[in-house]
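re: ur question from yesterday

yeah so i grabbed the chain u mentioned. its 357 aa long if i counted rite. heres the sequnce exactly as i have it in my notes:
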Amino acid sequence: MMIGNLADKVLSGERITRSQGMRLFREELPVLGYLADRIRERKAGNVVTFVVDRNINYTKFCVSGCKFCAYYSDTPEKPLPAEKILEKVREAVELGATQILMQGGLNPEAGIEYLEEVFFRIKREFPDVNIHSLSPPEIDFLAKIEGMSIKEVLIRLKQAGLGSLPGGGAEILVDRVRKEISPRKISSRRWIRIMKIAHSLGMRSSATMMFGHVESLRDRIEHLYRIRRLQDRTSGFTAFIPWTFSPFNTELFKSGRVRYPAGGVDYLRTLAVSRIFLDNFRNIQVSWVSQGERIAQLGLKFGGNDFGGTMIEENVMRAAGKVFTPLPVGRIVHLIRSMNRIPARRDTMYNILEVMS
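ran it thru and got these C-alpha cells back, copy pasting raw so excuse formatting
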C-alpha cells in the first residue's frame, strides 16, 4: 500500500509534487488504477468520448532525421498536392469525420503559402471540419524558412483555416533526452513557447508524451510537470495523450539502443500517473494505436476518459512495425460499453455531438 498520506492527498484533490510523482511510479498497479479511476470519475464522469478523424501525412521528406522515426525519408520530394489532400478529406467526411489531422516532415517545399492554400480549400468545401494540424516543430520550421515570427505564422495559418494544434513533437520535454533521440528538433523550451503563443491567440491544442525509449521515469515526471505548469498559465490544452514508442525500423532499434516496445503494464502505470499528476486536465486519452484496443480499453480503468480517434488513416506507426487497422465507430462504441461506460462522439474541442446511451 501507499506509504504515508500520499493516497489521501491524491484523493482529496491536492496537487502532488514531482518527488511524489516518482513515488507513484513505484506503487502497485492496482493502487494506481484505483486512484486514477476515482479522479477520472470525479473529473469526467462515466462518459467516454471519441472523434471521427483522419490523419493525413502531407510529406515524408524531413530534414530533422529523428532517431525514433521510421516514417521519414531523406529524399527531397514535393508535398502532397492540395487536390489529393482534398480527396482524402472528402473520403473522411463521407465516413463522418469532423477532424482532419495533418502532419508531415520538415520539408522546405511545404511552405506557408502551400499550407494556406490547402487549409483554405478544405474550409471552403468543408466549413464544419476542424483542421487540427501542424505540431510545434512544423510551426517552428515554417517560421525559419519564411523569415517570420511564430506569432505571424500562427496568425496567417489561423486566418487560412487552421483550428487547433496537435501535441506532436513533444516526445519527452527534457533536452538531454531530445539531444539523444532528435538532436535537430526544437528544444523543450521552444515547444512550450510555441504552444503558449498558440493558446494566447485563442487556439487550443492537445499535449502528448512519447515514452518507452531512452528516457527515465524522472524524465517522464519532468515532462508532466512542464505540461501542467503551462496549463496553469493558459488553460489551452484540451487533453493529454501518452503513448508508447514503437522501435522497429528506427535508428534507435537498429543501433541496439532500444530493443523492445514498452509493455502494457508500463503503459497503464504511466497513464494512471499522468491522470493523477495532471490535476488541471479534464481529458486523458488512451492510445489504442500504440497499445492495441484491449490495453486501451483497460486504460479506461486507469484514468482514461477518451478513446481518441477512429484514425481512418495512419502511416507513421505502421512504418515502425505496428499492425494498423482503423477502428470503426461501432467497434469503439462496443469497447466502451463493455467497460460499463457511456460512449459519446465528440469534436476536437470535446463538445459532445452524440451520446450513444
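noticed a couple things. The radius of gyration is 19 Å. also The domain at 16-355 is CATH 3.20.20.70 (TIM Barrel).
anyway ttyl
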